[in-house]
Amino acid sequence: MADSIPERRYCPNVQRSDRRTGLLAARGCAVLLAVLAAAACSGGADTAHVPESDHLGDGALGTVEVEPGDAVQVRSLNTITGDVAYLGIPNQRGVELAVADFGPIHGFDVDLGTRYDDLCSSDGAQAAAQTIVADEDVIGVIGPSCSTAAVAASPLITAAHMVLIAPSNTSPTLTSDLAGNPGLNHSVGYYRTSNNGLYVGETMARFAYQGLGLATAAAIHDGDPYSRSIAQAFADSFERLGGTVTGLVAINKEDTDMVPVLTEVATGNPEALFFPIFQPAGDFLTDQAPGVAGLAETILLTDAALLNDGFMSLPQSAGVYFSGPDLRFGATSNQSTGKTPESLLDAYREIYGEPPSAPYWAHAYDAATLLLEAITAASSVEDGTLVIDRSGVRQYLDSVSGYGGIIGTISCDSFGDCGSQKTTVIHHLDPEDIEAGLANVVFEFAPA
After folding, report:
1. Element (H, E) at 250
2. How would residue 34 be classed by pLDDT, with cut points 50, 70 and 90?
3. Neighbours of 440 (CB within 10 A)
4. At residue 386, what are phi and psi to the nearest 5 degrees?
């Protein structure tokens, strides 16, 4: 059960807005009720998120008024169906838990409404984003799960003066090159709690060159913004360290026969092969690579897209190295709700009946509390109506520094990179013991 939370205590308001529609009216409503039931309550008056005498924002992006009895509108946009649902479902659940734990804003409930599906695709994200922005009451969105979806959704959502906080997409094109230049797909109003992929690629390159002492490596990507940018970051970093990249080649996401591409890679005799790609392509690649002449002894390296229960339970995952966010959260807690990693994970398991299947559930939780804190700071109650200043929401997020999250200390740079950039490499040895694999950290890197 959830912990009691000093200075953040609340009991769910019995008066609910009738705006709950779509998926929430069916399964989503039941889930949120279960989440709310698990949240801690006090018997006294609501003491959380008390209105301030003033608020952030200058009105430049407009305001949203929430009438008495209505709710503050936020949305979740994640991959919740298809081959990559393992990534988005834990994200969505992290958002649900955060909304329940945070409680009302100035006495007004927060409504997640319909849970939208980005399908981990441009088309899916664009369609969902168009539906979201048609509702002018929505303040912000947590998601999407995938970089290719964020590239499509971000310009639409931010142009509507909403904010988008992504928990799991990592392409540097969405934020910056870490040298002061905006990425090709950067939109003002986009933020994320996940890593910048340039650090992810550099971490694996450092591990291969410094940790394993390898001199040659190749990389494979599937052409989407996430996969291509991470593979390129790895190649650039590996060469900068002194290694030789023998090949940087692409597959199609729909490919099942990887032998032609793997045969091309094998001509360079790489000691390691890095492939930041999703399932099911990753399943086929790891299964077929050892059978290609010249790759039998090649060390296989991948990224967090495959850091999930489905892939890690496959026989061919044994021996693979994974880069990804540091999941050794330690003695952290979310400063808005008081939740610790342990208490949040316990609540997740109790409510959903299983542990998270992918690594970004805590990033989604922290992203949601950041959004709710931003709305709190940018709003005030005027004659019983909650008035939310959209520019104030961005002002808060732009100034986040030293926020305590489950994932660690969160500070947002001028391009929306907010997450802890510490990245680890794990060595997965036994498909029948996924927890041991996740705990087997063999390398870590944190930028200065």
Report:
1. strand 244-250
2. low
3. 17
4. -85, 125
How many Cα neighbours within 13 Å face the side chain of 62?
10
Structure tokens at 72: 């503050």
| pLDDT per residue as tens digits for the range 229-248 | 999 999 999 999 999 999 99
Alpha-carbon torsion, ordered 29, 30, 35, 41, to 10 deg: 90
| Neighbouring residues of 386: CB distance < 8 A, sequence distance ≥ 6 | 65, 66, 72, 105, 106, 107, 108, 379, 380
Which position has the token pair 């002894």? 297
Residue 40: pLDDT over 70: no
Q: Which residues contact 250 (CB under 8 A, 6 or more apart)?
A: 220, 221, 222, 223, 228, 261
Q: Is 215:270 a contact under the CB 8 Å cutoff? A: no
At residue 78, does pLDDT exceed 50? Answer: yes
Element (H, E) at 310: helix 309-312
**CATH superfamily, domain at 22-41+61-194+331-417:** Response regulator (3.40.50.2300)
Pairing relation of β-strands 379-382 and 385-389?
antiparallel
CA angle at 329 for the pair 79 and 202, rounded to the nearest 5°: 70
The string of pLDDT tens digits covering residues 253-276 is 999 999 999 999 999 999 999 999
CA 89/CA 105 separation, integer angstroms: 25
CA distance 223 to 220: 9
Comparing 37 with 140, which gets the higher pLDDT? Answer: 140
**Euclidean distance between CA atoms 304 and 208, whole angstroms:** 16
Q: Is 410 strand, coil or helix?
A: strand
Least Cα distance to 78 among 350, 364, 313 occurs for 364
Give the residue from 279, 253, 231 showing the smallest Cα distance to 83. Answer: 279
Read off φ and ψ for residue 262, nearest 5 degrees.
-65, -35
Length of the chain: 448
Fold of the domain built from segment(s) 198-325+424-445: Rossmann fold (3.40.50)
The alpha carbons of the chain give a radius of gyration, in whole angstroms, of: 22
pTM of the model: 0.87
**Residue 405 φ then ψ, to 5°:** -120, 170
Average pLDDT over residues 407-427: 96
CATH 3.40.50.2300: which residues of the chain? Answer: 22-41+61-194+331-417, 198-325+424-445
Please state, in angstroms and as integers, the Cα–Cα distance from residue 130 to each residue in 77, 89, 136, 304, 366, following that order.
12, 21, 11, 29, 25
